[in-house]
Design a protein that fits this description.
alpha+beta, Tetrahydropterin Synthase, Chain A, 4-stranded antiparallel β-sheet
Length: 139
C-alpha cells in the first residue's frame, strides 16, 4: 500500500472520530440546561401567578371563597395565565358548582389537578406545572 493511501485512510479515521466526538458533545451540552432539574425558588416565584379570590356557591348552597397560586414553566406561560384569568374563573365556577361541602373538604387535591389539566388544554405558550391552594373559606 502506498504512503499516500495510508495517509488518506489515517486522515479519514481521524476525521470520523473527531466528528463523532463533536456530535456527542453537541447532543449532551446544548439546549435547555435545566432539563430534568427542579426550578429554583426564585424561578418558581418569577413564573407563578396568584389568582384573585373567587367567591361562589356549591351545589348544596354553601359558599366558598378560594384562591390559588399557579406555577408555570416560563415567563410567556405566566403572562398567558394572567390574560386567561376570565377562563380560570369560569373553570373554577363550573367545577365548584357540582361539588357539595363534603366533596370540597375532601377533594381539594382533585380540584387542583382538574384546574391544572383544564388550563393546560387552553394554554398555547407553555404549561401549568402545578396548582397550590393558598386560601379557602367555606361557609
Amino acid at each position: 500500500m502506498s504512503s499516500l493511501a495510508k495517509t488518506m485512510v489515517t486522515s479519514l479515521i481521524v476525521l470520523l472520530v473527531a466528528g463523532a466526538i463533536a456530535f456527542i458533545i453537541v447532543l449532551n451540552y446544548t439546549g435547555n440546561q435545566n432539563k430534568g432539574e427542579a426550578q429554583s425558588i426564585d424561578e418558581i416565584a418569577e413564573y407563578s401567578y396568584e389568582t384573585p379570590e373567587v367567591t361562589t356557591d356549591l351545589n348544596d348552597g354553601s359558599f366558598v371563597r378560594i384562591q390559588f397560586q399557579i406555577l408555570t414553566d416560563g415567563k410567556k406561560a405566566r403572562n398567558e395565565v394572567t390574560k386567561r384569568e376570565f377562563q380560570l374563573k369560569n373553570i373554577l365556577i363550573k367545577e365548584l358548582a357540582v361539588m357539595n361541602e363534603e366533596d370540597f373538604k375532601s377533594g381539594l387535591s382533585k380540584l387542583e389537578d382538574t384546574l391544572q389539566s383544564k388550563l393546560n388544554e387552553v394554554m398555547t405558550e407553555g404549561n401549568i406545572t402545578d396548582v397550590y391552594t393558598t386560601g379557602k373559606i367555606l361557609q
